[in-house]
Amino acid sequence: MTNIQELIEKLQQLEKEREQLLKTPMSPPGVWIHEYTITRRYPGSGNIEHYVYAKWQADKPIFKRHPKPRLEGIVKKGKDREFTCHQHIGRVGSSTGLGMDDKVEDAYEEWNNRKRLEAIDQALKEIEIALTKVMPQETNEA
């Protein structure tokens, strides 16, 4: 088997995997998951507990705002009134033993699907460029 045949087979395999990925839930393009920790001291027991949460983060405001009724219409100067750059997903874990929210697991799966799709698209571009360099160009002469 030649290198060109191997490239063509890999190209077909990646295109098939890409088609399957497009049928799965996927995060919007250009977003990532940011994890942050909240520390809380409970006055009654004196315990200090740590909670880790996850949120979607984006460079541009793409997530619909859901303000509390008392804060309706209050937006910082220069900010988008309808959309924001982040959206809370849920709890990742805590020092109290509380586990991960189901929504967080789903979000990580969606994000991994998006990253895999972007990697496949990049690989497809690179393979197509390699094939155009080694295969002669077809001419459309009549």
In the sheet with the most strands, the strands line up as 1-2-5
Average pLDDT metric: 85
Please give the domain count: 1
Radius of gyration: 23 Å
Instruction: Please provide the count of β strands.
Output: 5
Secondary structure tally, helices: 2
Q: Profile the largest sheet.
A: 3 strands, antiparallel
Order of helices and strands: HEEEEEH
Shape: elongated
- State the share of residues found in helices, binned by percent: 25-40%
Which class of secondary structure composition applies to the elements? alpha+beta
Instruction: Indicate the low-confidence ranges by residue numbers.
Output: none
The protein's oligomeric status is single chain
β-strand amount: 15-25%
From the N-terminal CA to the C-terminal CA, the straight-line distance is 33 Å
Feature tags:
25% strand, 3-stranded antiparallel sheet, single chain, 142 residues, alpha+beta, elongated
Quick rundown:
This protein is α+β, with helices and mostly antiparallel strands.
What features would you describe in this structure?
By secondary structure, the protein is α+β, with helices and mostly antiparallel strands. It has one domain (3-134). 37% of the residues lie in helices and 25% in strands. The protein has helices spanning 3-21, 102-134, and strands at residues 31-41, 48-58, 63-64, 83-84, 86-94. The protein has a three-stranded antiparallel sheet with strand order 1-2-5, covered by helices on one side. It has a two-stranded antiparallel sheet with strand order 3-4. Strand 1 and strand 2 form a beta hairpin. Helix 1 packs antiparallel against helix 2. The longest helix has 33 residues, at 102-134. The radius of gyration is 23 Å and the shape is elongated. 6% of the residues are buried. The mean pLDDT is 85.
